[in-house]
Each structure stands twice: as structure tokens, then as C-alpha cells.
Amino acid sequence: MHSRIDFILPLFCLFAAFQGSYSAARRKSTPPDPPSSVVFQVTGNVYPRGYYHVTVNIGNPPKPYWLDIDTGSDLTWLQCDVPCTKCLPAPHKPYKPNKDLVACMDPLCASVHWPETHECKSPKDQCDYEVQYADHGSSLGLLVKDWFPIQYMNGTVAKPRLAFGCGYNQEVHSSMDPPYTDGVLGLGLGKSSILSQLSELGVTRNIVGHCLGAQGDGFLFFGYDPVPSSGVIWTPMSTTEIEKHYSLGTAELYVGGKTTGTKGLRIVFDSGSTYTYFSAEAYKALVSMLTNDIKGKQIYNANDDKSLPLCWKGSKPFKSIQDVRNVFKPIMLSFEKSKNVRFQMDPEAYLIISEHGNVCLGILNGSEVGLENINLIGDISFHDKIIIYDNEKQQIGWAPANCKKLPNIYDDGDPDNGGLCKPYGSNLDILQAYCAA
């Protein structure tokens, strides 16, 4: 079973993958608004696969690659044959780069190495990188540039040339099973993220969002068009707590409407993390309250189930979360600096049904993986919500959503206009296009 934590802190990386600052992300001159937003179909689930990915077409002619969607890191990379020192089993053959290497002196190279000092012996040196994740996965390689064809919702096409990592040496945690994805789609705040590069070029607005279905799959988008016109709860991004991540400031933890007594929890949203991670104090309080709540309800510890650290069994195997919905109460984060802003996690957003028919807690102790006092909200807690990271207004929003229902495509279907409703084989989109049902 896969379980990813694509979250990077200086503690975990030789060269941290978070670059720049909020102010650096603002352009000196604002390009014209892009013609439309871009919507991408997402494939995956929390359990048993452990990740959500998109299909990215790169190069000329474009070839497809599967990349983990990761708002917890900046650097996009894919396995690369330069040649491979160590490439892992993956859906596609390693990418073969052209000769367009990012130079060591390029500002993008400096941003990849931030906050470490970055020295170049010669202006012609290539830009090397090494990135390590909290789950002990890593990628070593060099920065290159290539075409990333993008198809907008209105059917028009853009063909930006973007920088990304060409990884020739990869490691994954021993608990993860192949096949793996071809790499990672970095959607963080730094200058080197795909989102920042597209925004800088005026190709898309600096807004990204995702909608992950509890039963699997969903969609990812760049731009503002898919954002609901009403019902979104917004809270400012924290620019003081953990600046280079999608941080929401501090919150208090509630279970079933009752406080756990844990306050000041520093919250970060990270789509690269399969599960949610609480700091030791919050995790202990959560488990204590959940355990007390289920006493006398014919549900017992399933210590023999190693799917996750804490699992329970019933008198017969559970088939879905609906079987235990009346046993487990909603969990809520109440943000301390944003009045009446709450992020609720119903049982579907923190429990899984294991292959053994037991119910397991999908919130883990972050202290055991070195996250210290960071509380990481991962994919499981995003289920059936649209999550919007608006870097232009420096705010994060969410709303309940049917993630199986893709946003409407306002395309006239005219093949001369690059309509999405034509055969997929010749499409030039960055992520696999779809046609509205």
C-alpha cells in the first residue's frame, strides 16, 4: 500500500524545495488575464493506492507521465534517462531530455536551492538538485526545460516552456509498493512551482484547486472559473507561521462539538500527504476522545490489522464508512484568528475501511515522522470538498462538493477551435482532457 508525505521542511531536505516568498511571487508587471481556466482529471484514492495523480504530457511531440499532485512542495520532477542511476518501476518509460538545461546561474536554480546558499563555479554549469520528503523518499537530478502544452476549458491551447526536475536517482520508503508514479507535480508557493511559472508567463492565474472524491478520483484546476460562486469558507494564508507552505495559522481541535483542550495547532494543507498528521498532544487527545466515544458500541480494537496504527473491528466486517457513521463523530478545526471559520472532517474524512473489513484511523502521529508541531491536513481530510489555494488574494477556501462531477466546459465543440470533445489521441493538453457528460 502506498502512503505518501510529500511535505518538505529544512529538516528533511538537503536543498529545501520551497523558494521565494509571498512578495517575490507578485509580478512587477501584470500580464493580461489568461483566456480561461484549466481543469484536469485526477485519478487515485487514499486507500489502497495512497495517492492521487494527473496525466501530464510533456515534450514535442508530447508524451504522457503520471505525476502526484502535491501542494506541499514546489519542484515538479519526473524520472529521467540521462541515463538513470536508479529509476523505480513506473507507468511510463523515463523521460529523455533535450539539450535545454537550466543553467546554474538561472534564478529558478537559486529558488530550488533556497534557503541554502547556491554557488556556481561557472555560468555554464547545469543546475543540480536534491530533494528529500518527510516519508524519506527523494529525487536527485538536474533542472531542464521543455514544452507543457495546456488546453483551456474553452478549448484553446497554450504551449508554455517550463522548468522541471529531471530525476536520475530516486528512493522511496520501504513500505511503499510499486508501481509508483513517474514523478511529482509541485504546486507550492515558490517560484519554481509549475503554478508559479504558468502565472509568471500569464498562462494561468496563480490559483490552484483540487476536489478529491471519497470513493476515488476527482479533478484539479488552475484559474478561478471552477471556484464556486457561493458557499466557500475563506481564511487568510498565514504569512508568519510557516511562510513557504499553504499554512492557515493556528486552530483549536474539537471532537463531536467538544474541545479536546488542544489549541494553537499550526495547520498546513498538503495534497501530497495521503493521511492527516497531528502533533503528539493533539493526536493523543483525539484518540482518547474517540476511544471514549465508542465504548459500549460493539466495536473493538483490531490490533492484528497493520493497515494503519489504530484499527477497530465489529461483529462482522465493515463494508463502508456508512456502517460506522453513527459510531464516530465529526472532528473540527476552529481557526483562532478567523472568527467562525471551521474545517470539519466527517468520518469519511478521517477513517478508512481496510482490506480486512476493519475501520482504521487515517489521522496519524506527526511527531513519529518528524513533523514536530506541524499539523498536516492530507488527502483523506479533503474528501468531497473543493479546496482552493488563491495565491493572488493570499487566501485558502473550501466548500462541500461532488468531486465526481467535473466543472462545466464552455466549449462549442468546434474542432477548429481545439474543442475538448474530440478524440483524446491528438490532444495537446498538459493533463488528460475530458468531455462533459
Structure keywords:
13-stranded mixed beta sheet, 6-stranded mixed beta sheet, Cathepsin D, subunit A, domain 1, mainly beta, globular, 437 residues, 4 helices
As for the CATH topology of the largest domain, it is Cathepsin D, subunit A, domain 1
Please tell me the overall pLDDT. 85
Structural class of the helix and strand makeup? mainly beta
How much strand content do the residues show?
25-35%
- Contiguous uncertain segments of 5+ residues: 9-29, 410-437
The total domain count is 2
CATH superfamily of the largest domain: Acid Proteases
What is the CA–CA distance across the termini? 32 Å
Please give the share of residues in helix: under 10%
- C-alpha Rg (nearest Å): 21 Å
Family: Belongs to the peptidase A1 family.
GO molecular function: aspartic-type endopeptidase activity
Active site: 70, 270
Organism: Deinandra increscens subsp. villosa
Structure commentary:
By secondary structure, this protein is mostly beta strands. The chain has two domains: 241 residues, Cathepsin D, subunit A, domain 1 (Beta Barrel); 168 residues, Acid Proteases (Cathepsin D, subunit A, domain 1), CATH 2.40.70. Helices cover 7% and strands 31% of the residues. It is built from four helices and 27 strands. Strand 2 and strand 3 form a beta hairpin. The chain starts with 21 loop residues before the first helix and ends in a 37-residue tail after the last strand.
